[in-house]
Design goal:
Keywords: Membrane, Transmembrane, Transmembrane helix. Helices cover 65% and strands 24% of the residues. It is α+β, with helices and mostly antiparallel strands. It has a two-stranded antiparallel sheet. The termini are far apart.
């Protein structure tokens, strides 16, 4: 896979931009990898959101139980 390099100089900074030069046939696996990466990120985010919601529900139940016990004078 060949790459084209563009150098952009601005006073003290030098930026290197690498653009992959590929045919459409070579680009197809990269595109599927991108879709796989997006899929993994989305599933990870959904799992984290479900985990946070379940933890909040459990904490809420514990808080209600403790406040009920405190009102009855058990604790």
């Amino acid at each position: 896979m060949s790459t084209t390099t563009i150098v952009y100089k601005d006073k003290l900074k030098v930026f290197y931009y690498y653009f992959p030069v590929t045919s459409t046939f070579e680009q197809q696996p990269m595109f599927s990898d991108l879709i796989q990466l997006i899929y993994r990120v989305v599933t990870c985010l959904i799992a984290v959101i479900i985990l946070i919601i379940s933890i909040r529900i459990v904490i809420n139940i514990i808080y209600k139980f403790v406040s009920l016990c405190l009102r009855k004078g058990v604790l």
